[in-house]
């Protein structure tokens, strides 16, 4: 450390020019009214300078020099130093608040997934995160992500972290904007869902994902897959970006029955509910009626109710061969039938899972 650095003093408090001026008046036994008379300034101006409501201008500094005997640059320097210290302390406080916000953002996880660069400097990390969100400061994040929070289905097993959820949603928005998508067409989307249902029998994600994205995009729905972030507990989201709808999936439970049920659940929201609706699970203010409507839509779209009831009347309640045969008959993946039977309590949760297909994210790019 240099001698200059050792001898430098940067206060963390403010001394206003008005305080110094008031001390001079006390030492001289001069009132504010008398100073006003001697300088030609109004009593209000003198009082506002002392209370730091008005600055000492160059003209005022000259008048104080003639009246109080201290040079004009003394008063001008007091004002300049005060303004510098005020801005510096405000900037330090802003940076402190920004860093407190940054600590809540899952920066490491986002960098690992390639959403932002891997950086060491906290300031560089903050800049990268702000660019990712497309905002000027954390104050704008508060506006964008709390006041305009997107509808999402969320498990209650994990504590919700708004910063993590918003980052997950933002990545979905970024990916959705990269999809060439037609304007939303409700009838076209209803037709597309029939073709999408056929894709449930395809086990390879590198085969069914491109087809799913293409089919839905033709009807105005952008489908994106985004890995779940820590503390989010999110596995599906539905929202609108201009004239297109967005379905975002995280593969939280990694099995094909959960994947396809979540997709059709979100599709149900698109077809049955308004573009401005917000759907949040359970204690977070969930609209149970609309969530149940989406659940019923997904359930019945995957396995027609009449066919399901017919199967249950002839099934022995334990054999898996009839489950496979039934899935083939209604042209659906057997794992989806197993998941339905487990959900309804007709099959133990540990039985039949070998008929399901499980997925995992690639470690490098967050792709399946």
From TrEMBL:
<protein>
    <submittedName>
        <fullName>Addiction module antidote protein, HigA family</fullName>
    </submittedName>
</protein>
<keyword id="KW-0238">DNA-binding</keyword>
<dbReference type="GO" id="GO:0003677">
    <property type="term" value="F:DNA binding"/>
</dbReference>
<dbReference type="InterPro" id="IPR010359">
    <property type="entry name" value="IrrE_HExxH"/>
</dbReference>
<dbReference type="InterPro" id="IPR013430">
    <property type="entry name" value="Toxin_antidote_HigA"/>
</dbReference>
<dbReference type="InterPro" id="IPR010982">
    <property type="entry name" value="Lambda_DNA-bd_dom_sf"/>
</dbReference>
<feature type="domain" description="HTH cro/C1-type">
    <location>
        <begin position="21"/>
        <end position="75"/>
    </location>
</feature>
<comment type="similarity">
    <text>Belongs to the short-chain fatty acyl-CoA assimilation regulator (ScfR) family.</text>
</comment>
<dbReference type="InterPro" id="IPR001387">
    <property type="entry name" value="Cro/C1-type_HTH"/>
</dbReference>
<dbReference type="Pfam" id="PF01381">
    <property type="entry name" value="HTH_3"/>
</dbReference>
<dbReference type="Pfam" id="PF06114">
    <property type="entry name" value="Peptidase_M78"/>
</dbReference>
